[in-house]
Every structure is written in structure tokens, then in C-alpha cells.
Amino acid sequence: MIAMTDTSSLRTALKHHFGFDAFKGNQEAIIRSLLEGNDTFVLMPTGGGKSLCYQLPALLMDGTAIVISPLIALMKNQVDAIRNISETDHIAHFLNSSLNKAAIDQVKSDITSGKTRLLYVAPESLTKEENIEFLKTVPISFYAVDEAHCISEWGHDFRPEYRRIRPIINEICPRPVIALTATATPKVQHDIQKNLGMQDACVFKSSFNRANLFYEVRPKTDSTDRDIIRYIKENPGKSGIIYCLSRKKVEEMAQMLKVNDIKALPYHAGMDSATRSANQDSFLLERVDVIVATIAFGMGIDKPDVRFVIHYDMPKSLESYYQETGRAGRDGGEGQCITFYAAKDLQKMEKFMQGKPVSEQEIGKQLLLETASYAESSVCRRKALLHYFGEEYDKDNCGNCDNCLNPKKKVEAKDNLCAIIETILTLKEKFKADHVCAVMLGKTTANVKGYNHDELDVFGCQQGTDDRFLNAVIRQAVIAGYLDRDIENYGLLKVTAEGKKFLDNPSSFKIVEDNDFNEDEESEPVRNGASCAADPELYAILKDLRKKMARKLSLPPYVIFQDPSLEAMATTYPVSVEELQNIPGVGAGKARRYGEEFVKVIKRHVEENEIERPEDLRVRSVPNKSKQKIAIIQAIDRKIPLDELADSKGLEFTELLDEIEAIVYSGTRINITYFLDEVMDDDRQDDIFEYFKESESDDLNAAIDELGADCTEDEIRLVRIKFLSELGN
Hints:
Blueprint: H1 7-18, H2 27-35, E1 40-43, H3 50-60, E2 64-68, H4 72-84, E3 92-95, H5 101-112, E4 118-121, H6 123-126, H7 129-135, E5 140-145, H8 165-172, E6 177-181, H9 186-195, E7 202-205, E8 213-219, H10 224-234, E9 239-243, H11 247-259, E10 264-267, H12 273-284, E11 290-293, E12 306-311, H13 318-325, E13 335-341, H14 343-352, H15 358-376, H16 381-388, H17 402-405, E14 411-412, H18 414-426, H19 433-441, H20 446-450, H21 467-480, E15 483-486, E16 492-495, H22 497-504, E17 510-511, E18 526-527, E19 530-531, H23 536-553, H24 557-560, H25 563-572, H26 577-580, H27 588-608, H28 627-637, H29 642-648, H30 653-665, H31 673-679, H32 682-694, H33 700-707, H34 713-728
Parallel strand pairs: 1-6, 1-7, 2-4, 2-5, 3-4, 5-6, 8-13, 9-11, 9-12, 10-11, 12-13
Antiparallel strand pairs: 14-17, 15-16, 18-19
């Protein structure tokens, strides 16, 4: 161990190796702890300088530091960075599956000769017997476990291989361990320390507050693609990342940006490694402005001037959200974090968990609930995020999030909170928020009846309020410290000592009601504080025209064009059938079948009112937008059973239905009668078909409420596809 723990020596080494005059935050104390031989736990937000906390000690200490890292792309990036500050390449190496035998032999030779100070390995590589035997012969300075949250099942990127790290360290040669992560709740931190056998570690916890980041959550709608294009065009030349959950959406979004003259490239695990690396380099070298990626992109990528991070899909957990938004504004400059939220996206993610172990499903559901709570809440985004990570934010208004810039009026909820606390205590603190709310609202759900909770005095004590309001009270009471969610028991609600005091001596408790992201409301949604349609007068005219046309054709109005399509028409003013095809939900077939009268009306309105059309807001669609859609249409023409078609495309059956619905809603006629006749009897088909013929809406939830006792959701969707295809296209 070297004697270089005094401040002047460390700063001299920092200047010599990295060119910096001073350490950031806790870096110096962390490095000193490791040099003194202590196990060290580092919790530091993205952009705080975690890598330097183990890179500098590795350069100062004898032997080779073993850095356990989850991503090959991350290893390459960090090895390149270390080599750039050194005179020789052998100072740092990585050992993973991307190397051939000759390259592996060279790495081992450099380590054996004492030239290599940092060796990056994936946990999978560390567990290989030949690597364990080799590392037993190597003088090791310390072990660094990067992205340490991967150890915990409650972490957002759980990797079972991380659980084997401690036994392997013991087998190779016990040395000090430094574990680092940017995202860990108190529960995850405890898991990491316990699993790595470092309960006595020196813990360094930096603030999670990134004051320069602006947080905003918007409702996801049919105009979201257009909103994203508009935003990027209003911020020319700025670097940004757009995150999507599926590879397919990544490809579609990147293609759509390109045809709208935005320099963009895709990045996901399904691409070959050479293309993926080339696209990453193009972004880092600013050959392109935007990278569209799955969550794999960005871990450890040190690009300081990412000016915006857009989430097309809400992430699966707040840890993921925090880490991904944290890639914006790492230089302390502007960082816009915009997320598009739809509750149905989280419901879809919950469905994908089916088939996993029950404990994993419960953890996943709890993480999704926390994410939904954050998205829908009207409290300061910063306050909610920091509370989730165990840090209190003492300001009521951060001035840099959508909720603080557009605050809602506070309403008194003292009596509601008293009722909630009383109910939780009556239920002996053994239930989650949904059950507590059900009891208070007087709902006779299966669980409420099963536990005989409909016989309690508190049953129905809050009739007249609603779920959304009670959940808002609960969420804000948790932040205020009156309630607590027992994370280890999947979110059971507990009353804190402060909560019991409040019940004994209630005082004013004002809250803001949650944001309303309910997609099923009949009232027109509000987006970005304004009506969806830029021209309400034209929107009303188009709705009237649709009603007349529907009456004439004996069809429900939604079959012709849906409301979001009319809103888009009243915003971008398409004046030809060709332009109409660029409207969301309007394909070539629909445009030709119904569009002529609509574009005539729009053209007349534009001329009479001397309207200057917003050319820049009209999104060019991608020709043959998806090869997959064409393949699906061709397979249906060949009468391939839909379940077999889903398997062949690697899709869940519900995902295939999403694709087919998109095809039908855009105006393409398809015939799935052959499949329906195989899986459903005629009477059920007729019942569902007649329902949609008489209904004023094609809303799925309304159809399930009406038909769900006799039909499954998939059956309703299949017949709805048939109905729309036959009568609408």
C-alpha cells in the first residue's frame, strides 16, 4: 500500500494523470479511503465522477485493479479514456467475450508483466474457471464493482451473476472492495453491502439533486411523434437521447427523424456490435445530433453536453428514470428531461412479467407503482425523486420542473389523512394502498370481502371521494413523513410515529391533486396547457362533417376518423389527400375513402380565414414505415394462424394485435375471419360485432366492462379489428 493519502500528494497525482486542479464532491475522501485499504461504498449521481474514484487509486497502487462492469460498450469506452491519458495502451485492458484468443493472450501477458493497472471484466467472464485460475497468479490492488445496483433484486437492472462476485473474490484473493452506483434506494444499498460482505464499509453518499435538470412528464398521445420532432427542430444542433422500450420502436423512431431531416441513429442490443459501436461513436463525435436507443445506451458514456433526454416510454422503475435522465447536462449546463406517460404502457409491462417467479413479479409491480406515482403526482418532481432515494428536499418549489412552474391550487386534506391513518391502523398495517383505498371507498372487491373488511367501521368512510384523490393524499403523506411504504414487504402501508401524533392532534394538511392522465375520459384532453387542436373552430366543423358522413353511411363516427386525427387536421391543415396521409391514424386507404370531403372543407377554411399553414409542423411519414407490417399483411393474406404468426415474429400475442390494429386504423383492409372462425363461435363474434356497430366509441375498456363476463380482452380486440376493417376501410 502506498503512502499517498495527504491532500497535496493526491492533488498532484490528479493533475499529473487527469489534468484536473481539484477533486469534485467526495472524490478525495473516497480515494483516500480506498488507498487506506478500506471497503468503500459510493453512492454518487450520474455525472458526479464515480470512475475517477477507482481509476486514480489504480494508477497509484501496486498491482492490477479488477473492475467488474456490466456492459461491453462501457468497458471499451472507459479503457479508451484511460489509454488517452497514458503514454501506453497496456495501462488498461478489458477481458470479455468480444476478444479472440490472440487478444486474450496479449491481455494476460501485459498483466503478468505488471504493465496493466486496470482490468475491466464482465461478471460472466470473472466466473470462468480459466480466468479465476489466471487471476490467482496476479497481484491485485483492489476490486471495483461498478453499477453495483445490479446486485439487488430491487435494483433496476438485476443481474444474477453479480450475486456470485463475493465468493469469487474470496477464491481469487480477498482485497479491498469499492462498490459504486448512481441509483440506490436505502433498500438497494443494504442489499449491495450485505451481498458483497462489506457491511462495515466506509459509505460516501452524495446528494441526488441535479439542480440543472428540468423534469417534465407529458401525456402520450397520437401527436407525440409530432411533438418530439417539433421539440428537436426548435433546438437545432443540440445533442439528445430518445429512449424507447422496444427495439422495433427505436428503429421506427430513428427512421422517422431521418425523413424529417434530423440527424439521428438507432442503438439497441439487436444490432451487430460493429454497427452499434459506430453509431455510438457518431453521437460522441457529433456527426449526428440524436441517438434513439433502448436503455442499454449511455451507461458510463461520458458525453457532457447532452442537452435533452426524451423518454418515449416511461421506464420500468424510478432508478432507471433517474439514471437515464442523468445523462443530460453532465457539464452543469442545460438538461431537459421530457417523458411521455401513458398508464397503459405500464400495464403492458406488468403483463410481460407473467410467467416470471412470483417474488420477481411482486417486486416488478411495486417498482411500476412507484413510477406511476411519480408520473401522475402534482408535487415537485425533484422532491418526489429525492425522497425515493432517501434524501429530503426542503424547498416546496424547485422552480425547475413542470409541476413547480405550473403549480396546482392546494386543497385541505386533514380529515382525509386522519381517515387514512385510522384505516391503516384498523387493517393492522398489513395492506397496500389499493386495498386501503378500496375499503375506504366501500368497494366490495374479492379481497375486501375475503378478509371481511366490508364489516369494519372504516368501510365506506370516504365514499364520495375517489381513488385518485386518496392516492394523492397517501403519496404526499409518505413524503411528509406521516406514512411509510414497507418496501421489503412489497409496499405495505405503515403509520410512522409522526403519523400517530398527527391522528392524536390533527393540523392543516394541504395537498395538490394528481395530474390527470386518464386516457378514457370523454372530455377533450389538455396537452401542454392548451387544447389539442390549434384551431377549435375547424375542429368543430370537422366533427360536424364526420357526424353527417357517419349518419349517411350508417357507421359510428369513430370508424371514419378518430378524434386525435381530427385534432391533428385542425392543427396542421392538410389540403390534399396526399397530405392527409401524414395525419396520425390516417393511411392511404382511409384518406382515399373518406378524405376528399375533409380536405375540401379544410382548404376552404384556410382560404376564407387567410391562415398561414405551419409547414414545419407537418411530420413526413416513413414510406413503408415497417417491413414487419407488410410481412404481417402478407401472412394474413396467406391465412397463417395469428398465434403462429406471433411466434414467428418473436412477438407476444398482444403485441401482434397492436400491430394489426395500427394497420387497420391507418386504413388498410385485412381479413382475419379465417382465424376468428377457428377460435370463436359465431354467436360471440356477432355479439361483439353488434356492440361496436351500436357503440359511440371503440374504447376497449368500455367494451370489456360491457362484454367482459362472456368474452376475453383478446377476443374483443380481434372482433374489433374485423369490424373496423370491414366497415371502416
